[in-house]
Amino acid sequence: MIEIKDLHKSFGKVTAVDGLDLCAVDGEITGLIGPNGAGKTTTFRIIAGLLKSDRGSALVDGKDSATDRIEAQRRLGVLPDVRGLYMRLTGREHVRYHGRLHDARGPELEDRIDKLIACLEMTDFADRRARGYSRGQELKVALARALVHAPHNLILDEPTNGLDVVSSRAVRALLGEMRDDGACILIASHNLAEVSALCDRLYIVAHGRIVVSGTPDELRAHTQEQDFEDMIVTALAKGAL
Amino acid sequence: MTELAIKGFGHRLFNLFDMTWVVLVKELRDHMRDHRSLMLALIYPILGPVLVGVLLNVTSTTIKGKPAGELTLAAVGVDNTPGLKAYFKRHKVTLKAAPADPEAAVRTGAEPVILIVPRQAAGTGPVKVRLLIDLNRMANGPATQTVMRLLVGFSHEATRRLLKAQDINLSILQPLLVEQVNVGRKPNIARVFYKMIPPLIMFMVFLGGTYMAIDMTAGERERGSLEPLLSAPVPRWQLLFGKAIAAFVFTAITLVVNYAAFVLMLHWATTNNPSLASPPGALTFITMYVITLPLMALAVTMQIAIAAVSRSMKEAQIYLGLLPVIPALPGVAMAFSPPGAQAWIASIPGFSQMMLFNELLSGKDVQLLHVALSYATTGAAAFAFFWWSTRLFHREKTLFLG
What we know:
By secondary structure, chain A is α/β, with parallel strands linked by helices. Chain A has helices spanning about 40-45, 70-75, 90-100, 105-120, 135-145, 165-180, 190-200, 215-225, 230-240; strands at about 1-10, 15-25, 30-35, 55-60, 65, 75-80, 155, 185-190, 200-205, 210-215. Chain B is elongated, with a radius of gyration of 32 Å.
């Protein structure tokens, strides 16, 4: 479970997160939706233990990502918005490196890598160096890297951005399976079709704070919009008021 | 109980460096595939020794020149002084007619030296011969010196002969005889070149791991790989330690290549040239390598810290490109004007290594105290820079904003 309580973060005079509260529970996919600059990436970085909040806390399975960073990170898989691959390493070597950084070793790790490569349809390029990968291939490697230690909690920034239709469907299916296995998944996405297809609960964020939250049905009722895109736009407009 | 405690400690120690090992292996694999890192480690360290070796070889060959017995001297009017002509012949100098424009011939290098003897009536004072030389041509030095030596010799011989004819003792013309006694080593052109070795080594110490240090810090940030890396549940000092060791390994390889190249090139340059002072042996270079080890650690930690505070890879390249010059410049001054072995110099990182190198290259034994001081202070400085680097890797500005 990922709990965020009264989170504040500023960079100089710019307020990125302004009292954000959120709870992503186990066995659900939670969506964090909002316009560019709403504070999603900063929130994710605080959860991942990369930034320290000015006030408030981010807990991963009860572990504070600021004061108990290592324990929080053990329980977390992270897909950042910038995929960040090493051009001279193969896809498999990327996944193995991060598996080892998460204390995974030996045949168990190799089995897990093989399964992820098969599941994410990476077989054709997994043993090729990352230089020359397409955006979709980079994303698959980054996703496998986030999943290699079988984390109970996942934060994914644009998890299907750049993937073709078939691969997007495969990723959604994988996330669905993980949710059914009890994982807690928090995603940020601009792809509303993806959000509507995946998320059990939505948090709409603007100007660093949650403007409205609930299940898709609750939000439809709240905004009185049936179309998902209209629902989000109306929710953001209401929140702005 | 004690055994369990030792096992527990060993396990904790293993865990402490386990992640460092993971990072180290990744960085080495990554950079072994990078031609820029390999160029810095394997090609650059050869350039300095090649330069010194070739210069030494060319200079020594030039200075040595042809033996006097093989000298052919172009001359004008030498028939005017039959005695001088006979003297040259006696000293195996072949005389030939000078070209039409003697000055042009010397200036263009067609002749190393030309002797001009004026026509002068006997008994009208000393014969004023002219020697045309070009001081800018180092290769002409041996021939010029040989001719000068022979002319002075002929003059002395003629003086002695005249004085003897007058029954005058030669010693009254030389009331003072000067004997120079060199208490140092015999001066040798090769030693000037050997003095170039320490600054070149200092340069390589601060150059070997440069690209790695940039790529592992500013590079990680620029390509976005720092974020997933720091999301891993590993203490940052362990990540950084793995990176620092990887850069240290590359620097150490660079220096092995550098030292080996010096041994080979100096051997090549001095073989078949017994007039040159013997080059430092392999044992001297091995000792120098051991002395260099803590400086390599300092160079790597300085490079990582500077690259971490740089806003981009380009900025880091500029700063780290200048870094090798800082220790190399005082190194040049110390090489050509050595201050002698003193404890306070042995306590300054960079200077201490230069001092110890100079001692070794001049054939002296280094004091153990000086080596210990050098290790302690340079090691402490390396640790301080490493500690600063770990602090930098906790700064949000270092991680995201540059």
